[in-house]
Design brief:
Number of domains: 2
Order of helices and strands: EEEHEHEEHEEHHHH
Helix content: 25-40%
Number of helices: 7
Largest sheet: 5 strands, mixed, barrel
Number of strands: 8
Strand order of the largest sheet: 1-2-3-5-4
Length: 254
């Protein structure tokens, strides 16, 4: 099932955190979203990673905001005074990614209490998808209504950045180690043996097909048609899951 589609009706404000310059927008469904723009420097692959990893997070029982496709039309940039933002909006006409805005949420820090199993799930997800962007400097976790929500998955699935010249071999990703050092949930590495098998069992071929089906065709720009790119994502993730799982950290970080 594809992501719901909305049309942006107003650009509210940029979020000047990180390098992608997302922004808060209002849409015609009366919702408010953090918009990840297709015209940002990281490219369309970041939007694809957001959708796939968000789907995996939901599959294994992590809270992650609802996603939508956001249609940006030309008038949205007309009254934006900031030239940098106006250029980004004009470069992003078409389908973009909207992440449900969580009003009143705040950034995760060491004072937040949560179940240890949740920490292990976040750790497993990031190891599985090779996410390198969840450190104490940038936890990419929000606390909303007492629950921890995982956000910003664009730094995962790095392998697709090498697909411009053709699909690469999934075995390299299958065997690529992942470092737990500096991860915000590193202290829960000893909990992984208790959850890893159960989480892996959830990632069935049917689940991967359903998750990759949510990615719009126009974001799957590469050396092969969108349907084949979806199968490639499924194949890379399947290979990592079915391999020796040397990527799964087993030693507590120092």
């Amino acid at each position: 099932m594809s992501l719901p589609e909305v049309t942006a009706t107003r650009f509210i404000a940029p979020l000047r955190e990180g390098g992608s310059l997302p922004g808060i927008i209002e849409a015609d469904d009366l919702g408010t979203y953090v918009c990840k723009f297709r015209g940002a420097g990281q490219g369309l692959g970041v939007l694809v990673a957001e959708v796939i990893v968000s789907g995996l997070a939901d599959l294994i029982g992590l809270r992650t905001p609802r996603l939508v496709q956001v249609q940006l039309t030309e008038p949205i940039a007309r009254y934006e005074a900031d030239e940098e933002v106006q250029d980004l909006l004009n470069a992003s006409l078409g389908l973009n990614l909207g992440v449900d805005f969580l009003p009143g949420s705040f950034g995760f820090d060491a004072s937040v209490e949560f179940p240890a199993e949740l920490g292990a799930k976040v750790l497993w997800l990031d190891a599985f998808t090779a996410n390198v962007d969840r450190s104490w400097r940038n936890p990419n976790l929000l606390v909303w209504h007492g629950d921890v929500w995982a956000i910003d998955h664009g730094a995962a699935l790095y392998f697709h950045h090498a697909w411009s010249a053709g699909l690469t071999d999934p075995e390299r990703f299958a065997n690529q180690p992942w470092s737990v050092e500096d991860h915000v949930m590193a202290r829960y590495v000893d909990r992984l043996p208790g959850v890893a098998d159960a989480l892996a069992d959830l990632v069935t071929d049917e689940a991967l097909a359903a998750i990759t089906a949510r990615v719009p065709d126009e974001w799957l720009v590469g050396p092969v048609p969108p349907a084949e790119m979806r199968k490639a994502y499924q194949g890379f993730l399947r290979a990592r899951l079915d391999g020796p799982q040397g990527w799964l950290p087993t030693v507590r970080a120092a």
